[in-house]
Amino acid sequence: MCNKSVILKVSILVLLMALLISYDAVGNDLVDPFAIEAFNRGVEHIERCNYEGAIPCFTEAIRLNSNYAEAYNNRGVVYYYKADYDQAISDYTKAIELNPSYTEARKNRLNAYSKKGANDRDTKDYTMAIKPNPNWTTAYSMQGIVYYCKADYGQAASSHIKAIERKPDYAATYVKPIHNQAVSNNTEASKPNSNEAITYCNQGLAQHYKNNYDEAVLNYTKAIEIQPGYAEAYNNRGFAYQCKANYGQAILEYNKAVELKPDYAEAYNNRGVAYQYKANYDQAILDYTKAIELKPDYAAAYHNRGKAYGGKSYYDNAIADFTKAIELNINNVATYYNRGVAYQYEANYDQAILDFTRAIELDPSYAKAYNNRAVAYYLKREYDKAWADVHKTESLGLKMNLKFLKALKKASGK
Known about the structure:
21 helices, elongated
């Protein structure tokens, strides 16, 4: 079984290509000569690494010609070098708006997004970057990551396959894994072919989210063969085995992940989930607690530990953990639902109803929340409301417990 609270680590490739500076006003034949003069002064400042002096020059060029795409691009480059990535992205975006075919600005914007670790990159940036160089392996791989982040797993797999087809020994010198520091104590992490491992891992993710778990395992295994110190690949392979209900093998994979990376909070959380599926709640609680120690704002670990406490009938502990999880993530439907269940076991039906109602507000098709709210209303002797939730539950395709329906009919006289 799969659990949405299990975390897969996405291996992101960070572009380290040189930023592309425009040296003339291509496509701006009618640019004001004073704007060109300001633009050229800005370029001179960049070449001398005088970024503070460059910004007012490009700003002046833009004031004199608001359609000066190259000036926006170059000012973006300056902001990038100043580590102001949001402003850099803003300027690159403006340059692209003015000239949608401005490949250099798109490449620069990719660089800024990569520095931010952002997932809202535009796949069109990669498409435009690929056009002038159809064999640019990195662009295909990065394009695949963006498709993955957009949940378009078919396109993600296609892009990663293209990357591997173009360079089976994918080891471009101008990229590096963002997670290389995660296994910095392992010499395997510094091997040149680590980027090929990342590509296979990303392809595994794409297959994973298409529910092709066997294919995912094969890709993660390939990544591990290439880079044996790849903790994230072990973690992801563990989750694939977990989705195949092979919890014993999943635990072995998570063991290896935390051996390689002792501060890997997600792997501890994931191993806790696997132990929980095996009804080993004590070990699960230990793993969730370790994950929380490593990452105090880890909402999923609090949520999962709450479920484990619930499995041991420690409902006060469960409620405390669910409450903390909600503080950290106020829109998690499952956490409201599970806290409602815990309140229900504590006979706090009013609070249970509030939580089931909040879960329904967040997801109106959440049949289990209607089901349990019907039970809570029944226990409060609010039979009309109970019947309303019964009808809604069954309209969503979930059958109510026959013994409960019999009891509700007897109590309500209906």
